[in-house]
TrEMBL record:
<feature type="compositionally biased region" description="Basic and acidic residues">
    <location>
        <begin position="1"/>
        <end position="14"/>
    </location>
</feature>
<protein>
    <recommendedName>
        <fullName>YtxH domain-containing protein</fullName>
    </recommendedName>
</protein>
<dbReference type="Pfam" id="PF05017">
    <property type="entry name" value="TMP"/>
</dbReference>
<feature type="region of interest" description="Disordered">
    <location>
        <begin position="1"/>
        <end position="24"/>
    </location>
</feature>
<dbReference type="InterPro" id="IPR007713">
    <property type="entry name" value="TMP_rpt"/>
</dbReference>
<feature type="region of interest" description="Disordered">
    <location>
        <begin position="74"/>
        <end position="99"/>
    </location>
</feature>
Amino acid sequence: MENQDYNKAEKAVDNTENSLRNAANDAKWKISDLADKARDYINEKRNKDEEASQEDWFDRVKANAAETWEDIKDGASEAWEKTKDAAEDVKAEWNKKTN
C-alpha cells in the first residue's frame, strides 16, 4: 500500500476525532454552566412565586441532555460514515495492488 493510502486513512481518523470533539464542544449545556443554570432556575421560580424542586430541575437537565445526546450521536454517525468510507477506499486500493 502506498504512503498516500495510509495518509488518506489517517486523515479519515483525524476527521473522526475532530467531528467528535466538535460535537462534544457544541453541547447545549456544558458541565461548567450547570451551576449558573441552576441559579437561574431557582431565581425564575422565585420570581414566579413558585417552589423550585430538584425533580423539576432534573427534568430540565434531562431534556437538555437528550438534545445534546442527539447532537453528539449525529456527529459520531457522520464521523463513522466518513471513516468507514475512507477505510473502504483504502481496502479497495490495497486489493488492487495485491491482485
